[in-house]
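Priority: low. Protein: Homocysteine S-methyltransferase. Input follows.
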Amino acid sequence: MLTSETILLDGGLATELEARGHDLSDALWSARLLADAPEEIVAAHAAFFAAGADVATTASYQASFAGFAARGIDLRTSAGLLRRSVTLAKEARDSAEPSGGRRRWVAASVGPYGATLADGSEYRGRYGLSRRELTAFHLPRMEVLAEAEPDLLALETVPDIDEAAALVEALESLGLPAWLSYTVEGGTTRAGQSLAEAFAVVAERDEIVAVGVNCCDPADVAPAVALARDITGKPVVAYPNSGENWDADGREWRGAPRFSPAELAAHATGGPALLGGCCRVRPADIATLARHIHLT
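Result:
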């Protein structure tokens, strides 16, 4: 599925939606706009494609049946909104300007269980749920997303090994490829586990086509990516956040941005790679990254 060339991911979809004037402070985050302003999601995807991105990552990261139910949305409508996240990304892809022969992809985002709690738990992991319970949580929404026929799934911002194993188990029956990316801090997962053990979980899984890190400090990317390549032999995926810190209590980002397109682009020389940005990374940053890896 993946070639030897670098694939350019998008940046922070929610960040772009906020920049367009939307308040995403409720528990559904960007998924709220699947119902309230779907055209704005298309516009945000389009901005990243215009910047040079090859991939649109859907607005389903924080979407869950439980989260929609809390807003009074029934099961059927919730499933429709999940499928809509893929449809909107496809709409943006299909209407984008030609990309010089480069393929464009739609990756259906599957965030961790902690993201649906909207309390910062995805940066801690270890929710007190068994692996079986986590698989049972993830599988229904992954099935619905797969029905919409994205190119692949983005199993992203995974904070611990147990959840990674649960996600891979849920993936088995879907017939779709996926990348899996951990959120890390220093040399460990957010739950404090060895990255070597974390990457080993997916090393022999053919349905995982790339592995790496996302929504982490940019400084944590290089050692994690090198380890992921060494352990799995798979293409790596890396899309750090801006380097600012998320204050879950205050629900705001603090500190100065440290996202460096030049430093991130260096990972394109070690083998196949999917590179981009996460929270607080804008289309202008992706355009700069594209220039550094000679995609534009």
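The chain is about 40% helix and 15% strand. The domain at 7-295 is CATH 3.20.20.330 (TIM Barrel).
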